[in-house]
Structure formats: structure tokens, C-alpha cells
Specification:
Radius of gyration: 30 Å
Oligomer: single chain
Number of strands: 35
CATH architecture of the largest domain: 2-Layer Sandwich
Largest sheet: 8 strands, mixed
Shape: globular
CATH topology of the largest domain: BirA Bifunctional Protein, domain 2
Length: 653
Amino acid sequence: MIKITLPDGSIREYEKGTTSLQVALSISEGLARNVLAAKINGEVWDATRPLNEDCNLTLLTWNDTDGKQTMWHSSAHLLAEALEALYPGVKLGIGPAIESGFYYDVDFGDKPITPEELPKIEAKMQELANKKSEYVRKEVSKADAIKYFTEKGDQYKLELIDGLPDGEITFYTQGNFTDLCRGPHMPNTGFVKAIKLMNIAGAYWRGNEKNKMLTRIYGITFPKDKELKEYLVLLEEAKKRDHRKLGKELELFHFSEKVGMGLPLWLPKGAALRERLIQFMQRAQIKSGYLPVATPHIALKDLYVCSGHYEKYGADSFQPIKTPRENEEFFLKPMNCPHHCEIYKASPKSYKDLPVRYAEFGTVYRYEQAGELHGLTRVRGFTQDDAHLFVRPDQVKEEFCKVIDLVLHVLNALDFKDYTAQISLRDKEDRSKYIGTEANWTLAEQAIIESAAEKGLRTVTEYGEAAFYGPKLDFMVKDAIGRKWQLGTIQVDYNLPERFELEYTGSDNQKHRPVMIHRAPFGSLERFIAVLIEHCGGNFPLWLTPDQIAILPISERFNDYAHEVLQLLNNYDIRGYVDDRDEKIGRKIRDNEMKKIPYMLIVGEKEVADRKVAVRKHGQGDVGIFSMEEFSDIIKNEIENDFKKGTVKEEVK
RNA sequence: GCCACUAUAGUUAAGUGAUAUAACAGUUGAUUCGUAAUCAUCAGUCACAAGUUUGAUUCUUGUUAGUGGCACCA
């Protein structure tokens, strides 16, 4: 007999070799019907796998993330089975579950499939699912595994087997399909009741661009048809928040083929938004002891040779601009840091001067490959809210923590709650791509890890994601359709001070090397605004929105009063416009609702007589009649509330 | 850059081997209006280039740009 501990703490005894599914059955038949997999001592197992020792057991259903993942992974196998049935001779790559659904990478040989064929594949999958074929796990020797796939002629699987140790290889079979797979899988294919193959894309085998490109088919499955429908509706809703769509509708920015791809043009309303964000950051930075600096858009090649950027990115940058006579080479600036190093060097520094914090809204240009451009999130010309802190080694952690505060101030002020801080460290094995000494890297990595822990950030650690010159802490936020983007970034750099031979005089009267911290709480303004648009669905916080109010005269007769109201409210720092088009009030309301204007002030006979305004709030409707002073208080309070959430400590120096 | 798909007016779309349709936006005029679309009027386009064809917006090829991925991201 073995003892099985259930999540509620109760312990039950079963015969050795009992499966999780049988355990479920002993609890309730309904539960057993819904069990997709089981978590055994924290590890996800097939529900049909025999249990031979005492263990903790959690049954997993569709309501558990791991349950969903199991079903989606099994669905990938179902897709593969359907593909083998419909397209004999296809070669299979890998087919994992992903955050929403699954994919399978397939080599169709010389006859690629088209999106029109997807419904046919879906139908086949459903047909196979309805057979309720069991997923059967089998441990195989490496030799047998190689034999099987050699006979099948699937070189991709053979390549995968090649990298696996003998004795740890398992096959899973359902129906007529057998795949190399670690598992786990759901008990049988019958759980799949709704299937949607989303799209087809190319993907390099094993993610290496030197390898062949396989066809990747993305799909998702559900245990109920209703859930699929809901999911598709959700996707539609998300598309409505796409910043590219809203940017057009709200007249924020524009791309022109004539100007060039990836080069955003900011329209007046978008520019107004940008300006507000810049002001917001400038205020916070002044409080935190930053010194504004400004640098040109081009610099001599030598600057980037010195910084190391030329060696690393020279070939993948916009190519140099040459002077006609001297033939000097200038590069468009891809970073602000080398310039700031030169500013640091412009005067001798004492240990008493540090930390020095140079801040610049610097516009930089990077040659991004055509295929990677995406709305405002990935562009070729963008503005960073960049700053470089030159600090003594003993100040690194304190300064790092202060920068985290600043980033949190930004995220709080804009109501971002769902973010993760990603700690990017060196690749564990390959260290050839990094420059700088082992000791400095270790110091920097430690500083980041400790600061993040001290600030209580929710972190994920990624090895191999560090910049070539140092580790970093990135704040990752999701867009409307779940794609993750890096916003704020903080990076420790021991390399540039070395390369630029930066120094300060210590209390010992000796020369010392400062440490540099790169930081950009927004990251790039372009990307930040893109994510912000999607985050708030175009309904910006009142302090930020380009137009806070629209004044709507009932008819032409009240236009003069409307303009007078605007003038008065301008004096209270409230901005907006008068909608004095020759339209009926219903029309004006509709149009301004669509433009997501936070407050509409309607003025007619009564309002003129009382010198008041009828206030209508976006998305809520009529909220009553107020005097200008009362209305200004409403606005002021709302803005204050937005800001109460974030705080920046005053810098005392 | 790679794989696949797309390109019709400012926007969103319909359609065709004989130069094309609608809605909204825009113009002009009427209307002077009380909380999500007043009526009428006018105007404007088949991304670009080459080819096939009596004839191409439609078919083919190329270019450019966009979309979904992959790879890349100082």
C-alpha cells in the first residue's frame, strides 16, 4: 500500500500501482471525468501513470494552468496525427503547448500548405478526437527510438533523440500516431471538443536562422465549444485596443512610405501626449537630482569604436554619413551613453561630486530589419528618456534602488499593475559574447539581484539576456494581444567607464573608476505610448490626455459663451476645444464620445443665464450642472488622485 | 533578413478581363437644434513598375509597404 496526500492535507491509502485517475474515481466519478493530468510531488504526470510510492497528489483539470497545458500539448499531437493522415510524408519538428494553445513545426517538403486548408485539418482533428484514443506512454531505449524514426525517415526527431541521454526517452502513442515526447498527456483525445487552427507561420528549425524554415501551425483547443467562441470574441475585443488602430482613430501618429518605414510621424494630438509624458518625467528627474544635458544626432565613428558599439553593431547600423571634403565618417546616434561619457569627461570629478546623473530625451536611430518593425513598439527612430548615472562603487546599490523607485513611480502613475521585472544575466555557458571582467560582472549581477529583492519586485531571471556590456533589469508589460514588451530598463555598466577612461579623485587623492548605470523608465517613448494606448484602450488618464474637455454649444447662438468658457478653463490649466460645428447636439455628443474626450461641457440657454456648464462624462453620461470653479475642482481632484498612487522621494544632497 | 498572407477614396469595406460601389470623414448649401448619427449637394480612388491581352484595377512577374510568425533587438 502507498500513502497519497491530497491538497487538502488528507492522506489516503491505495494499492501500489494505482493511477491518479483511479484515485480521482475513488473521490468522485465527475471529477474523474474531468481529470487531464496530475501533479505528483510538484511534477506533472499522466493521470494514467501508475503511482508506486507515497506522494503528494493534485488532480489537474481544465481549471488548472497545468491542466490546460497538458490538453494543449496533447492537442499538438492530435494536429500531428491529422497532418500525417492528410499529408503523408510530412516530417515533424516539435509541437509544444504555449501560453494560449499550441503549435507544431512541420516540414511539408516542396508542397507548402495554404491557410485555406486549415478548416480541413481542423475537421480531421475533431474526427480523430472523437475516437477517444488513449495516449499511451512507453519507455524506449535510444537504439529503438533511433530505429523507429530512421524507418519513418524523420530527420528532425532523430536530431532531437541525438541530444537525449539513453534511458530517458519516451514515446507517446494515440491512435495511429506515435511521437517522441516527454509528456505528460491527457488520458484520451476525447477531451477536445472545439478546435481552432489560428494561423500559419514560418519558423526556423530549433530557432536558428541558419537552419531550414519549417511551417508552424498555431492552434488552440477547448473542452467546450462555448469557450472557443468566448476566446475568439476576446481576441476581437483585444484587436480594438491595438495601438495602431487607435493611433489612427485618435489621430496620434502616422507612418508614411515616403518618410520611410519604422519612422513615426507624431500628429499634433500624439505630440501633445508625448510632451506631457516628457514633462512628467522631467519633473520627477529634477526632484531626483538629475541634470539635463543635450547632445547632437550624429557623432564621429571613433566615438563608437571607443565605446565598442562599432565592433558589435557597426555592420548592422545605418551606414556612415561622410563629409564631402575631409571624408570623415559620422554615424547616426544609436545610443546616448557615449556622448554622456564625454560630458562626464569634460571636467575633473571628485568623489564628492558623485553620483552625477545626466538626463536627456535623446532620439536615436537603429537599423531594425524590415520584418521586425511593428507599429510604435519597434521602430527605427525613437526617443529614449535616457539618463546615465556615474557613481562610486559603494553607491551602486543605493542608486539602483532609487532608479527602481522612479520606474515604479511611472508605472504607478499610469496604473500599470501587471508587469514583471526581468533580471537579465549572462549566458551560463557561452561567455564569449560579453565584454568586461568576471569580477565586475559578478558585482553588477549581485547589485541587481539584491536591489530587486529589496524592492520586493516580482522578478523572473533570464540567463543569456544580458546586454553585451552588462546585466540589466527590464520591466516587461503585455500589450492588448498578450505580447510582452520591455518598457523601463536599468543596466549596470562597468565597461564604458573603462573604455572611456572615466575617473574621479577619491578621498585618498587617488584616481578611481566610476560605475555607470544606464536607465530609461519609459524605455522608448514610442513603445511606452504604444503599450499605454493598449493598456487604457485610448482612454488616457486626465492629466495626460491631449484634450480633456470638449465644449458643445447647443446651437450657434451659444458659440461665444462656449469660447468664453474655454478661455476661463484654460486659466485653470484645463485644455480642450469648442465643437462649434453646425451640427445638432446629439451628433456632437456622439462624435466626441467616439474621440474618447473625458468631459463634454454642454452650454445652451440655461447655462448662459446661470454662467454654468452641463457636464457629461465619457462613458457615463450626464453628471449635472456646475459652475466653472466647481468643474475645475472636479478636474483637479481627479488628476491629484491619479498622482497619489506614485511618489518620488526628494533628493537630499 | 526568412516563411506565409494582404494592398481598391482620408478611414472601413463591396466588386469586375471592357477604367468601379457604398458608408463614414471632407466640400458647399439649408437648418439654430438640449445629451450617442438633421437633410441635401459636390468631389475624390483600383500601391508602384513591367509583362500577357484587342482591352488589365482584375491574370503573371518584380518593387514598395503592411499583417501574422521566426530570427534579431546596444
